[in-house]
Design goal:
This protein is low in regular secondary structure. It is built from one helix and no strands. The radius of gyration is 15 Å and the shape is globular. The chain starts with 40 loop residues before the first helix and ends in a 100-residue tail after the last helix.
């Protein structure tokens, strides 16, 4: 059994995850796709992870997680899997979503001001009333996304 999470980062080949692997896995709770992120423990543990890592949540698998209303300001979520997650009314100002998967995410009235979405996938997401002021939206896939009332100024 591995003594540290075996997750391989896209951004830096020498970067290592700081978390130990889950019991019976080579990956930590955050990088293990077998761990269901829609469970209640995720919000509490994620707040701790943000403090422990200084906001480095790169590559975290947060599919279907309920992050509604959370403070994710300036958090690094590069290459994170946030498919079908709930980000309604979250504070994501200045967050880094480069290469992240946000397919079918619900981000109603979410503040993304200044966030970096370069090469992120926002397909089929609900971004009604979201704030995208001063965001980097280069190479972003917004196919079939609901952007009614969103601010892109």
């Amino acid at each position: 059994m591995a003594k540290k999470c075996q997750f391989k980062f896209y951004s830096q080949s020498d970067k290592e995850c700081v978390y130990p692997p889950s019991i019976g896995s080579e990956f930590c709770v955050w990088h293990d796709s077998a761990v269901r992120k829609e469970e209640d423990f995720v919000r509490v543990r994620l707040k701790s992870a943000i403090k422990e890592t200084g906001g480095d949540l790169e590559g975290f698998l947060l599919r279907k997680a309920d992050l509604s209303g959370m403070n994710l300001r300036e958090v690094d979520l590069r290459d994170a899997d946030l498919r079908e997650a709930k980000l309604d009314e979250a504070d994501c100002r200045g967050a880094d979503f480069r290469g992240a998967k946000l397919n079918r995410v619900s981000a109603v009235n979410t503040n993304f001001e200044g966030a970096n979405f370069m090469a992120a996938n926002l397909n089929d997401g609900n971004f009604t009333g979201a704030n995208f002021k001063n965001c980097n939206l280069r190479i972003v896939n917004l196919g079939h996304a609901d952007i009614r009332g969103a601010d892109f100024s």
